[in-house]
Write a structure and sequence with these properties.
This protein is mostly helical. Helix content is 42%, strand content 0%. The protein is rod-shaped. It starts with a helix and ends in a 45-residue tail after the last helix.
Amino acid sequence: MTILLTILHVLVCIFLILVVLLQTGKGADLAGAFGGGGSQTAFGARGATTLLHKLTTAAAVAFMATSLILAILASMPSGSVVTDPGPAPAPASDAGAPATSTPESEAPAAAPPTPAEPTP
């Protein structure tokens, strides 16, 4: 899920960069630099909303949404691979220590002898 969302986030980022770079600036002509034309307002004259502006808004909303979801997923605690440590390992036996004898009830049973085949 996170990998898919990260791939989508990168694609939205690239699309947003391209759409913003395709737009023309407001008052970017020479008259705007010297105070002429539509430079009476702070951000230029307001025109009709174009398809490029709508795509920019949609890409910005998608970028914010994927950023927020990725941040929430990253802050959630993840499960550990090791959930149960299992039994403790047996301690290593010393070579110089005497071997402990096991009672007969715990001794492993000997395998029954295999009968030898008669020779013809």
